[in-house]
């Protein structure tokens, strides 16, 4: 039996992914602050405040398996504050959960993850900046950049980055959206979970360090590269856009 860990398993993408992994025959450890109510003999809920590094250290010691086949770094949070008016508390919470917790889990479990997979549920916000979401965007960009380096250093662990555009979750519903926000551009938690299953079953064949945007027909406009990256060659004085 393969073993998986899913953070933020109590609702949304984490809960959907946990349920689908159990259907695939995995033993799943769900890590979250609030109880994950899933009745399955192969599911183990571990209560943990992922903002707290000491709790992460204690919780990982409860995972007795010698090998972890899959780590899903899904837990995350979002605060809507402008870049000139954010609080120190928001900054700390955003990066502690969205960035520090995933890299700390990977560091602690690295020996058990050899030969396994890490899938980070990130966001297209790692490259598409939004007003009022600077901290969130920065935390996702930091997460992806860290794991790019991590995957280069640990070739025996496959790393895949999922970048959903908008996902219809309780977190998304709690955010302040403009009246003309198009909810039809949101994918569902099950859609994201299904993409994870296709990756681990190799139905979607990707190399390590691949980034995959998760979209639907109504959000295909987001499938573009927004980066304004140029180079300037000091020898030839050539100035050219890379992409």
What is this structure's SSE topology?
Elements: E1 3-7, H1 12-23, E2 27-32, E3 43-47, H2 53-60, E4 70-73, H3 88-108, H4 110-113, E5 117-121, H5 134-153, E6 158-164, H6 170-174, H7 189-200, E7 210-214, E8 230-233, E9 238-241
Parallel strand pairs: 1-2, 1-4, 2-3, 4-5, 5-6, 6-7
Antiparallel strand pairs: 8-9
Helix pairs in contact: 1-7, 2-3, 3-5
Brief summary of the model shown:
With 243 residues, this protein is of the alpha/beta class. Helix content is 34%, strand content 19%. The chain has a single domain, classed as NAD(P)-binding Rossmann-like Domain (Rossmann fold, 3-Layer(aba) Sandwich).
What does this structure look like?
The mean pLDDT is 92. A 7-stranded parallel beta sheet has the order 3-2-1-4-5-6-7, sandwiched between helices. It is an alpha/beta fold. Helices cover 34% and strands 19% of the residues. The chain is globular, with a radius of gyration of 18 Å. The termini are far apart. α1 crosses α7 (189-200) and α2 packs parallel to α3 (88-108). The protein has helices spanning 12-23, 53-60, 88-108, 110-113, 134-153, 170-174, 189-200; strands at 3-7, 27-32, 43-47, 70-73, 117-121, 158-164, 210-214, 230-233, 238-241. The protein has 7 helices and 9 strands. The chain has a single domain (3-241), classed as NAD(P)-binding Rossmann-like Domain (Rossmann fold, 3-Layer(aba) Sandwich).
